[in-house]
Amino acid sequence: MVKHQPLQVYERQLCLSCITGIYGCRWKRYQRSHDDTTKWELLWSLILLFTFSLLLVWFYFWWEARNDYNEFNWFLYNRSGEWSDGTVPILATTAAGFTYIAFLMVLALCHIALGQQLNLHWLHKIGVTAALLTTIIGVISINQTWGHEWDVIPISLQATGPFLHIGALAAVTALSWIVARQVVHAEKTKFQVVVMLLYFSVLLGLYLVPLYINSPCIMDPNTLKPRPNVIGHQGAPMLAPENTLWSFQRALQMNATGLEADVAISVDGVPFLMHDHTLQRTTDVKKIFPDRQMDDASFFNWTDLQQLNAGQWFLKDDPFWTVNTLSPREKDLIANQSVCSLEQLLKLASYHNSTVVFRLRRPPLEHPRYHSWINDTLQAVQRSGVPQSLVMWTPDEHRAQVRQLAPALIQTSVDKLSPESLEKSGISRLLLRYNQASTQEIRNFTHSNISLTLYTVNEPWLYSVLWCSEVSSVSSEAPQILKKVPYPIWLMRLDEYYLMWISADIISFAVVIGIFIFQKYRMSGMYSYSPEQIMLSAAVRRSSRDINIMKEKLIFSGQPQ
Asked: Among residues 48, 116, 253, 339, which is most buried (max CB within 10 A)?
């Protein structure tokens, strides 16, 4: 007769096995440990935390920088000579890396909450190292090629700061469960004091963060200024090829009150619209003039320029991923667009009574129109018949002469000067990138009767922040998007913000204290049980559970087989 004697029983712990298995490849019970984490593994935990924090900032940066994705792609084009959407691989790798590191962080917190020893698997260590080095290389690259874009972080915090504060406060409050458990289970008083000081220092810092949150949207709604005018930057380049007549018509259809263009001078003195120095990206110059595709655009005469198609590239490259939203009629119109002259643009603006602002690029020194470029442009303005009061003149060269020949032009500066200097120079308008003027500077310009236009504003959150800052107009590549923003995304009175801030702090503090008290009470309750009571309780519970027999010892009796 064979008797079976169970040597060890245990209840299923699938969740714990998955947590320790995925994090450290410790799937079996005997591989797990409740011992203190080694110093080496603590170091890796700090590296993981630092990588998570860096990736969080990197991810937030690219999320908010979507306002300027086209600018980034143009920088890449200037370096490589090939147009592509460079943001796609960056966003894909950033999202994948952040998801992976965030998952490891959650697993690490689960280890701490369950009292398990941290032991990151070597494959994960390689993954963390790769994510950290890749992010650091990305940060260095952005500093070198697109450094001014970092300004988008403090600017965006004016729109997201109050809500990010609530989210961070909720996350740190939730962590109090783990912190309290570690404190009440710790045997060393020194460890308890250090953990408590660190945690409550972070918590106190979050409670006081709103003192440093400064958003123009925290204001009395009754003092909100009129909606800023929207100027179509290169027309509506998300809906039609940039700097073409159809692009500007589309901008006007989207309620743009002004049009902005980039102007070059042809060999025969005709101002035409072109952003790039060459015709390679936005025309079919490779097909029509293959030997001249790398020549400066200003070295073509107007007859040659009229032979080029300026719309087919848009349908082929789809720079804004919008071609599939276009109707067949719109695609036909786009496919037949040609290079647009300044005179054509001005006539369109005159017909619609729209403001025009253009950036005039001086031809190279060896260009035949190098000295007459200002006169050529003024003559085009006069031939178009557009009222001079609709034209914003930006070149600083020969401004006094221009003022004499065309006194009604709106003198506009693209350099940031003080209101006093602008007033002294007779300049009434200012055109700046959106990161070049703070909220206070915008209001100072407005109060000094200097009309400020900020570019390039494509996202509703940025438009809302600038609206609350009292800017008079913005230049946008996405007038179709801003058309859908009839009111700032959010407005909040100061007393309402204080109420939200103080209420969140009080609720958070009450929850934290409650969790610490509960954990302390729970621990003291465990101490009140005797070993016999614990064993008896375990025996009673075991009878009602499914148990697995890990090993069995076979005891053979003397009974014959």
From this structure: 339
